[in-house]
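re: that complex we talked abt at group meeting.

here r the seqs, copy pasted straight from the sheet so there may be weird spacing, ignore it
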Amino acid sequence: MTELKRTPLFALHQKLGARMVPFAGFEMPVQYRGVIDEHLAVRERAGLFDVSHMGQIHFAGAEACTALEWLVTCPIDSLKVGQVRYGLLCNTDGGCVDDVTVHRLSECEYFLCVNASNIEKDLAWITANAPRSANLTIDDRSAKTGLIALQGPAAQSILAPLASIDLASIKRFYFATGKIGGIEALLARTGYTGSPGYEIYVAADDAARLFELLLDAGQSAGIEPAGLGARDTLRLEAALPLYGHELDDTTSPLEAGLDRFVKLEQGQFLGADAIVHKRNAGLSRKLVGFELLERGIARAEYPITHQGKTVGVVTSGTHSPSLGKAIGLAYVPPALSPLGSEFEVWVRNRGLRAQVVATPFVSGTSAKTAANPSGKAVGKP
Amino acid sequence: MSDTEIPDDLRYSEEDEWLRSEDDQCIVGVTDYAQQQLGDIVFVELPEVGSDVKKGQPFGVIESVKAVSDLYAPISGEVIEVNSALANQPELVNGDCYGDGWIVSIAPSNEAEIEQLLDAAAYARHIADRNA
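got the structure back, here u go
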């Protein structure tokens, strides 16, 4: 077994009493006080997450824009400096290599924030597919970068007294650089919880200091350190996809309902031909949100049947702390994707009735605004 | 786990269930250590009253937000009662695992199996060994 990596906050997590688990090659906190407490803290007040395991890949040079336009499904040239967009890296079969956020740092400089489990795969794929040019440098800064997510309705009021940046001026899916408690930071108004908040990029060496500073600053507001357990239930209530569950190398972004992050009508990008081909041929499955109508909890990989035939599979499922019921995401045939459609989820040899419901599951945690704040077609520059 | 409660008057299985003998029945639940390890419990699948359970075999399922775990029968016998309050309040297992969070009551078919269970001191050593 290869040795697990640790983020710069490992010692702090231990001090805070976290339960550590292996995740994506890292030893990460799954919970501190408890998943439900941490989940509700984010929805009602604020939660603080160490997501330093995630990767950051920088692109710089005159060819950076052209290279990313080819590599990523979302429009790049139309990104403003200081803007963030969600997009996918697709392979030639139109499957998802990874889902990423693209940040434009300057005219010719960008960085991608990528899934921890995919850093090496992404780098290999980027290296293989980016143009070789003296005008393009690609730099993996994952190990040098700490990333802390401050999420919840109290996030802005906790951060404001510490920040040299005017927080009100940062729109959703934009970022600014400045100092937080004297620490150099890139502050992005993004997140993976469905609640408002920020993701704060700092030098790895500053990450633990920033985490403690924010915990102190948020104490009166009721901030809680929050682990991967709450991160998963929060993102699932917001119906945000998780790579390895809703997305993988064989999944088309259109099956996952991510059409608005794919610039099919504009120019060429890697995987476009296969995605168009699949769309024209008709999708064989679609991602839906469902609720169980009977007692039980659906979990990833549980089979789905309809009229006695296996027709799909659960990709993620849990007990929703906000709603107090069992929710999940699943791939089903398009005929079963309309709201109100019913099917059975097989939980330990029993088929439990399930119904397709609107996503996000929890209102106010709009997946659309989280990922596409402008509400405009992302494809239109 | 110094803050784990292990009452002296109960017997324990290696699978982290406790058992309390009362007249001709045995009340069974999961230990404080188990509920701490599981975290927030959100669903308990109980056996049917009248069904037979076999020592060491799964008789139900307990689910936390994150994980699904089997419940193992500490003894063989017939299920004579289940804690139906857990259907609506599975969190009772977290809040009061040795009291209101009990799981089933079993009429033992082989009394000798009760004597084979661990006492509190042996169960404490069992947990310590496992975490060593």
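couple things i noticed - DSSP finds nine helices and 20 strands in chain A. Residues 7 and 52 of chain A are 6 Å apart (CA to CA).
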